[in-house]
Amino acid sequence: MIFGNPGIYYEDGTYSEFAIVIEHLTADLYSLNLCVDIQMIPPHLAYNMKSMFVAPLTDRDVFKTQSPALFHLSDKELMIALAKQYCSEWKVEERIRLGLQPTLYTTDKIEEYEESLYDDSYFDFENFVDYLWDIEPHEYGDKGWFPFIINNKDETKLVIIHIHRNPKNLDDYPDDLKEYERFFNADKSPKQPKYFDEHYWSVKVIKMKTAEMLSVIDEAYEYLFGTIKKT
Question: 193: which DSSP letter?
Fold first, then answer.
């Protein structure tokens, strides 16, 4: 079932590029995917027990938080700002930005780099604001798909960050080096990695009226659970 319109024009000439796609897989399992500009996100079926979709379809707090400063950032600036708060891979990018990535493939240098990834001193826990729309953790976040909700007045931006983990064919790499292919070639010579390299990071952003997005979410909830329940 498709709720909303995934990237088509209405008869009146207006355009929609947001939908929710739900498939009933087995007696207890359903999949819930976003469809943005005719692109399924994530591209595989994001499935779980039906009850697991109650929270993301009834959570209204994430749609109430007003964030005008974030809302007006460029797509890439928005991706970096949100990745800093939620994606552990951001720490890798920060090391690259500062020129602190490993340049020698030795045990000491790799251990030093790994230890640096545990540094959370940059994180402002006291002023943390939750922007993540946590739809399904295993099929979304664990596989590199992170949807965020950013609001300004009566409009909402849906920001979908995708981390492309191991995007390249690494057959020529020794097994112990594959994890560090951002920094080294197969012969262990150093690379010059790029900050938020588009081969590893991508972002898709759409903007629509908050009420329109919530209407689609309510339709999806009603299909799964029979009545509309808001929190």
Answer: P
